[in-house]
Amino acid sequence: MSTDEKIVSQKEINRRTILSFIFFFIMIAVAIAGWKWIDRQPQDNGIPKPLRTVLNTNEKIFSDYVFSDSNLAKAFPSSEVVPHTRVNGGEGMSDGFDPSKWKLQVVRKTGDTLFLSLDDIKKLPKTDIIFDFKCIEGWSQVTHWGGVKFSDFVKYYKLDTLSQMKYVGLNTPDKQYYVGIDTKSIMHPQTILCYEMNGQPLPMNQGYPLRLIIPVKYGIKHLKRIGTIFFSNQRPPDYWYERGYDYYSGL
Fold this sequence. Notes:
By secondary structure, the protein is α+β, with helices and mostly antiparallel strands. The chain folds into two domains: 10-40; 73-86 and 99-243, Sulfite Oxidase, Chain A, domain 2 (Alpha-Beta Complex), CATH 3.90.420.10. The chain is built from five helices and twelve strands. The protein has a five-stranded mixed beta sheet. Strands 5, 6, 9, 10 and 11 form a five-stranded antiparallel beta sheet that branches. β9 and β10 form a beta hairpin. The radius of gyration is 24 Å and the shape is elongated. The model has no long low-confidence stretch (mean pLDDT 94).
């Protein structure tokens, strides 16, 4: 027997086993007590404040130190596009919507709103993107979209000064669905104002005539049927944030 080897008695094994179980049950008790404490804390937009603080800290870290325009979502060949594109939610898709009366409203300041038709948007160079659309429900699909880069849209319509603000807000025409997005993400080179799916005009249930496609975010930020766009230094209201989800929702 090597001099470095040590014989452990059965008594010592039993002692260590008992200590391991005691430690295990103490940790379970601490976890349960901690969760009960968190659950008793005041709510902040649908979740306890300590959890919201963690989400806000994550947002600051990723938006200030991690996010980069050079980090692109993976592009896929058209052969990998799914034959049937799934609809991620129907909030804001009112039955009474009249496409013939639709205009995109871009609020430059109070009393100064730019009204644009779909043809006004199609004047800009078209961009296609095929990427893995990810939903917070746990599914993803490789999907094909076409439209105008948001950054090109900002430049063409001379919104550069407004785009220096921290956030962009988007609403559906019926105001029933709304998102707030950090400006860095919406100015990302893969973010588009989308008017085509699989080379055809958007279906009504996919946000016709115009929706947002933003590959650096989960599907809850890809607002369908854009009615209004505005810029702000304060966080705009966000539908799912108010229901307990992460405001940043970045990938």
